[in-house]
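Researcher: Can you fold this with FE2/S2 (inorganic) cluster in place?
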Amino acid sequence: MSRMEFLKSLGLKGASLFAVYCAASGLSSCVNESMEPTLPPGTGGNANELNLDLSTSAYSKLNTVGNYVIVNSIVIARVSQTDFAAVTQVCSHEGRKKVYFKNGEFYCPEHGARFDTSGKGLNSKGSKGIKNYATELTGTTLKVFL
Ligand code: FES
Protein backbone atom coordinates (compact mmCIF):
# COMPACT_ATOMS: atom_id res chain seq x y z
CA MET A 1 0.00 0.00 0.00
CA SER A 2 1.41 3.39 -0.99
CA ARG A 3 1.50 6.33 1.40
CA MET A 4 -1.29 7.99 -0.63
CA GLU A 5 -3.45 4.85 -0.49
CA PHE A 6 -2.87 4.61 3.26
CA LEU A 7 -3.95 8.21 3.82
CA LYS A 8 -7.05 7.66 1.68
CA SER A 9 -7.91 4.62 3.80
CA LEU A 10 -7.98 6.94 6.82
CA GLY A 11 -10.77 8.90 5.17
CA LEU A 12 -8.71 11.84 4.01
CA LYS A 13 -9.54 13.30 0.65
CA GLY A 14 -9.21 16.43 -1.48
CA ALA A 15 -7.14 19.29 -0.07
CA SER A 16 -6.76 17.58 3.32
CA LEU A 17 -5.26 14.51 1.72
CA PHE A 18 -2.96 16.64 -0.38
CA ALA A 19 -1.79 18.70 2.62
CA VAL A 20 -1.07 15.64 4.76
CA TYR A 21 0.58 13.81 1.89
CA CYS A 22 2.88 16.70 1.05
CA ALA A 23 3.72 17.44 4.70
CA ALA A 24 4.48 13.79 5.41
CA SER A 25 6.52 13.44 2.26
CA GLY A 26 8.62 16.49 2.96
CA LEU A 27 8.57 17.17 -0.74
CA SER A 28 9.49 20.72 -1.58
CA SER A 29 8.14 20.30 -5.10
CA CYS A 30 4.92 18.50 -4.19
CA VAL A 31 2.22 19.57 -6.65
CA ASN A 32 -1.48 18.86 -6.48
CA GLU A 33 -2.23 18.01 -10.07
CA SER A 34 -5.95 17.87 -9.44
CA MET A 35 -6.14 21.56 -8.58
CA GLU A 36 -7.21 23.99 -11.29
CA PRO A 37 -4.86 26.87 -12.10
CA THR A 38 -5.79 29.95 -10.14
CA LEU A 39 -7.35 32.68 -12.25
CA PRO A 40 -7.57 36.30 -11.11
CA PRO A 41 -10.80 37.55 -9.51
CA GLY A 42 -13.21 38.67 -12.22
CA THR A 43 -12.61 35.60 -14.36
CA GLY A 44 -15.48 33.28 -15.14
CA GLY A 45 -16.74 31.08 -17.92
CA ASN A 46 -16.76 27.44 -18.81
CA ALA A 47 -14.99 25.02 -21.14
CA ASN A 48 -16.27 26.93 -24.18
CA GLU A 49 -15.71 30.51 -23.12
CA LEU A 50 -13.73 32.74 -20.85
CA ASN A 51 -15.53 35.66 -19.20
CA LEU A 52 -13.49 38.64 -18.08
CA ASP A 53 -15.09 41.33 -15.92
CA LEU A 54 -13.52 44.57 -17.13
CA SER A 55 -14.69 46.39 -14.00
CA THR A 56 -12.21 44.40 -11.89
CA SER A 57 -8.63 45.50 -11.37
CA ALA A 58 -7.35 42.32 -13.04
CA TYR A 59 -8.87 43.32 -16.39
CA SER A 60 -9.59 47.07 -16.20
CA LYS A 61 -6.56 47.77 -18.38
CA LEU A 62 -8.62 46.37 -21.27
CA ASN A 63 -10.74 49.52 -21.07
CA THR A 64 -7.84 51.36 -22.76
CA VAL A 65 -7.06 50.89 -26.45
CA GLY A 66 -3.65 49.30 -26.98
CA ASN A 67 -3.52 47.37 -23.72
CA TYR A 68 -3.63 43.60 -23.38
CA VAL A 69 -3.83 40.83 -20.78
CA ILE A 70 -2.80 37.18 -20.93
CA VAL A 71 -5.21 34.64 -19.44
CA ASN A 72 -4.81 30.88 -19.77
CA SER A 73 -2.18 31.38 -22.49
CA ILE A 74 -4.51 33.60 -24.53
CA VAL A 75 -3.46 37.14 -25.38
CA ILE A 76 -6.50 39.43 -25.26
CA ALA A 77 -6.08 42.97 -26.56
CA ARG A 78 -8.20 46.10 -26.82
CA VAL A 79 -7.66 47.04 -30.45
CA SER A 80 -10.12 49.95 -30.76
CA GLN A 81 -12.89 51.71 -28.84
CA THR A 82 -15.29 48.96 -29.93
CA ASP A 83 -13.14 45.92 -30.72
CA PHE A 84 -11.03 43.32 -29.00
CA ALA A 85 -8.80 40.60 -30.43
CA ALA A 86 -7.62 37.36 -28.86
CA VAL A 87 -4.98 34.88 -30.03
CA THR A 88 -3.01 32.06 -28.52
CA GLN A 89 0.20 33.05 -26.77
CA VAL A 90 1.96 30.14 -28.53
CA CYS A 91 3.72 31.32 -31.67
CA SER A 92 3.13 29.31 -34.86
CA HIS A 93 6.73 29.78 -35.97
CA GLU A 94 8.57 27.55 -33.48
CA GLY A 95 6.04 27.18 -30.69
CA ARG A 96 7.47 29.64 -28.21
CA LYS A 97 4.94 30.91 -25.70
CA LYS A 98 5.91 34.55 -26.11
CA VAL A 99 3.29 36.27 -28.24
CA TYR A 100 2.02 39.60 -26.95
CA PHE A 101 0.29 42.71 -28.31
CA LYS A 102 2.40 45.61 -29.54
CA ASN A 103 1.74 48.58 -31.81
CA GLY A 104 -1.67 47.34 -32.91
CA GLU A 105 -0.60 43.79 -33.83
CA PHE A 106 0.44 40.54 -32.19
CA TYR A 107 4.17 39.99 -32.00
CA CYS A 108 6.59 37.22 -30.99
CA PRO A 109 9.99 38.55 -29.88
CA GLU A 110 11.72 35.18 -30.31
CA HIS A 111 12.34 35.65 -34.05
CA GLY A 112 10.09 38.59 -34.84
CA ALA A 113 6.87 36.94 -36.10
CA ARG A 114 4.06 39.45 -36.64
CA PHE A 115 0.32 38.79 -36.86
CA ASP A 116 -2.61 41.09 -37.48
CA THR A 117 -5.54 41.27 -35.07
CA SER A 118 -7.31 38.42 -36.89
CA GLY A 119 -4.26 36.17 -36.56
CA LYS A 120 -3.07 36.48 -40.17
CA GLY A 121 0.69 36.47 -40.60
CA LEU A 122 2.32 39.76 -41.54
CA ASN A 123 5.86 38.57 -42.29
CA SER A 124 7.76 35.38 -43.17
CA LYS A 125 8.15 34.23 -39.54
CA GLY A 126 4.42 34.68 -39.02
CA SER A 127 3.40 33.18 -42.36
CA LYS A 128 1.46 30.30 -40.75
CA GLY A 129 -0.83 32.73 -38.97
CA ILE A 130 -1.88 32.20 -35.40
CA LYS A 131 -5.00 30.76 -33.79
CA ASN A 132 -7.47 33.47 -32.93
CA TYR A 133 -10.60 33.51 -30.79
CA ALA A 134 -13.85 35.41 -31.24
CA THR A 135 -14.72 37.96 -28.56
CA GLU A 136 -17.91 39.74 -27.50
CA LEU A 137 -18.41 42.57 -25.02
CA THR A 138 -21.68 42.71 -23.10
CA GLY A 139 -21.78 45.42 -20.46
CA THR A 140 -18.48 45.06 -18.66
CA THR A 141 -18.11 41.34 -19.45
CA LEU A 142 -15.79 40.37 -22.27
CA LYS A 143 -16.40 36.86 -23.54
CA VAL A 144 -13.62 34.99 -25.33
CA PHE A 145 -15.01 31.98 -27.20
CA LEU A 146 -12.62 29.05 -26.93
S1 FES B 1 8.93 31.23 -32.21
FE1 FES B 1 7.89 33.10 -32.49
S2 FES B 1 8.99 34.04 -34.08
FE2 FES B 1 9.99 32.16 -33.86
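Model: Folded with FE2/S2 (inorganic) cluster in place. The chain has two domains: 1-29, 43-145.
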